[in-house]
């Protein structure tokens, strides 16, 4: 049975998919995509189950997407979720030093936003929160990143009306030496969120010497999720692809290597 935690300050909730172990294990907080207008089921529980089967406690965040402009509400929801997972005193037993945030599409933008803004005093003025909600790693699948020429414009318009605010959340401009290690993957044929989004973020990470790994797959439309038969959507051209599906095993391997070094 899925356990659910509700945010006291918003409509957000956190669904928990614990690994079948009583040992202290790393955790992954998953942010589904949906252009900041809805939350994709295909990027929710199937992804959580994949991580759970690989020895991670998985959590799916149902962040705020209603009543735009959303502003900072989704980011505050994710801040709450990571802090809640880290400070949990009961089951499942989470390693507080090994918590990754995983996001797809607009959910990737949300995950990356916490990765770059976790210690931003203008967004999070309470410095006592910073280490409590800081992700230890980021996993970004075909993420929305840039508000520039390669933008998924609808996502930014759902967040902010003002162009200067949209520019502030063009995350390739916000990378610093404090961003957590990051795993990215994208398909070159993505027609909704251009592959340049991942490339711009990756280049910024490299410039700041952040440990990072990027996988670009030559074929595939946007929103493939796990790219396995269980998440196929033939009517939208989303078919299982074993090559693209390899991102999950690559990611799990990367997480184990990354968390060993923490």
TrEMBL record:
<dbReference type="Pfam" id="PF20434">
    <property type="entry name" value="BD-FAE"/>
</dbReference>
<keyword id="KW-0378">Hydrolase</keyword>
<feature type="domain" description="BD-FAE-like">
    <location>
        <begin position="17"/>
        <end position="205"/>
    </location>
</feature>
<protein>
    <submittedName>
        <fullName>Prolyl oligopeptidase family protein</fullName>
    </submittedName>
</protein>
<dbReference type="InterPro" id="IPR050300">
    <property type="entry name" value="GDXG_lipolytic_enzyme"/>
</dbReference>
<dbReference type="InterPro" id="IPR049492">
    <property type="entry name" value="BD-FAE-like_dom"/>
</dbReference>
<dbReference type="GO" id="GO:0016787">
    <property type="term" value="F:hydrolase activity"/>
</dbReference>
<dbReference type="InterPro" id="IPR029058">
    <property type="entry name" value="AB_hydrolase_fold"/>
</dbReference>
